[in-house]
Amino acid sequence: MAGQDERRITKVTKFRILKPVPPLTWEELGKLLRDVRYRVFRLANLIVSEAYLNFHMFRTGQSEDFKTAKPGELSKRLRQMLLEEMEKKKIKDASEQLNRFSKINALPDTVAGALSQYKIRAVTNANKWRQVIRGDASLPTFRRDMAIPIRCDKPYQRRLEKHQPGDVEVELMICAKPYPRVVLATRRDKIGDGQFAVLQKLLENKDQSTDGYRQRYFEIKQEKFTGKWHLFVTYDFPALHRQKPDPKTIVGVDVGVSVPLYVALNKGHARLGWRHFAGVGHRIRSLRNQLDARRRNMQRAGRADLSSETAGAGHGRKRKLQPIEKLQGRIQKSYSTLNHQLSKSVVEFALNHGAGAIQMEDLEGLKDVLRGTFIGARWRYHQLQQFIEYKAKEVGIVVRKVNPAHTSRRCSKCGFINSDFDRAYRDAHRTEKGSAKFLCPECEYEADADYNAARNIATLEIAKKIAVQCKRQGIALPEGKAL
Fold this sequence. Notes:
The chain has helices spanning 26-59, 71-88, 94-99, 109-120, 126-134, 188-191, 193-204, 274-307, 315-352, 367-370, 374-378, 381-394, 423-428, 449-457, 462-473, and strands at residues 8-20, 148-151, 161-163, 167-171, 181-184, 214-222, 229-238, 246-255, 261-265, 271-272, 355-361, 398-402, 437-439, 446-448. The strands form 3 sheets. It has a 7-stranded antiparallel beta sheet. The protein has a 5-stranded mixed beta sheet with strand order 10-9-8-11-12. A two-stranded antiparallel sheet has the order 13-14. With 483 residues, the chain is α+β, with helices and mostly antiparallel strands. It has 2 domains: 8-238, no CATH class; 246-274 and 333-473, Nucleotidyltransferase, domain 5 (2-Layer Sandwich), CATH 3.30.420. Helices cover 45% and strands 17% of the residues. It is globular, with a radius of gyration of 27 Å. Helix 1 (26-59) crosses helix 4 (109-120), helix 8 packs antiparallel against helix 9 (315-352) and helix 9 packs across helix 12.
């Protein structure tokens, strides 16, 4: 058995709910899920408001300590509130309808417990409330279409099961018995090899052994545009034992001008650049251009229809513009897929070279600086950086953000900062690939501009070194980026 203190990685995988198991119908399942979701929404906001009120009373001296009501107590209170609301509406058998979910609470413990542990705890601690009171953060609120959380980590709680003729089913503990049972869409050709491999490992570990992949909790969420329901399975597994990486070996990741990324080492000449990412770049451009063109056509058609004298009003506008929203969803999914591919390449590059750290540019507040670059015009760079961070964490590689000021103008060989290497210089000296050559006037070092920048970003304590060099050359750092 793996040790209890062994580091574990937590991830999420998603499966579409294909159908309910008879005699349950889709109409009955849909109503049940919507009813549970409404109760989850009410309970979540009740817990948060109670926690904030108690903290406020504590801070103002009206209470001796900061105590929060237990979710079970609030669930009972919510049940009473729902009962009173139903009685006011003169709904028959109100109490019996509430009993479908729990005889004493608004929701079963599997749902209320998961809501408290996985959703509420992070936003109701004392530090969070201090931020709210100072005005540094807003009061947390939850929307009616939020996901339904369900615990599945205890021995008696339901988890994924495989049945004949190979269907994967699960009983959803969202109400009192009998639990609704659903079939998930788990065909290999539909979900992909990686997701299918995770599914098999989850099914094999029936005893929830710490040596394998353990199911921790579910989330049920309805897709906004299609109305389809999905089951998100949160699971964990032991981190891989790898040779300890070298903290002095650093990978630098630069926002590319001609390609999405340029990756380089602080030692040696290994890199990932045009040859590796050019194909992805072409796919991005093609995808974006095609979808932008389709969106413009849809918008023009929509305006023409809506301006017609015979055009309908009201919900007709929403219906005609809905394809544009669906198209935006397709764009987001495509970007996510490509970002996964790029982030995997970066982390594998770091592993293959024994790197102990990955350094990336801190791109917050740099929208104007990025304008005109490949990533600024066409990419979801924040998502890409998030993917790199969590993938690196899984394999024990540290990720650091560095100030990007002058990283493209500094010579990675001698450290001299070429102030003349600006956007105009790049545009005037572009190659057929779209990149530019960096030339150091001090040591005459010449290299691909993106590669030179990546090498700088891979340098340990690069911000301090640039600050020292700027002072030596009498160069001011860009405003707001003091080091």
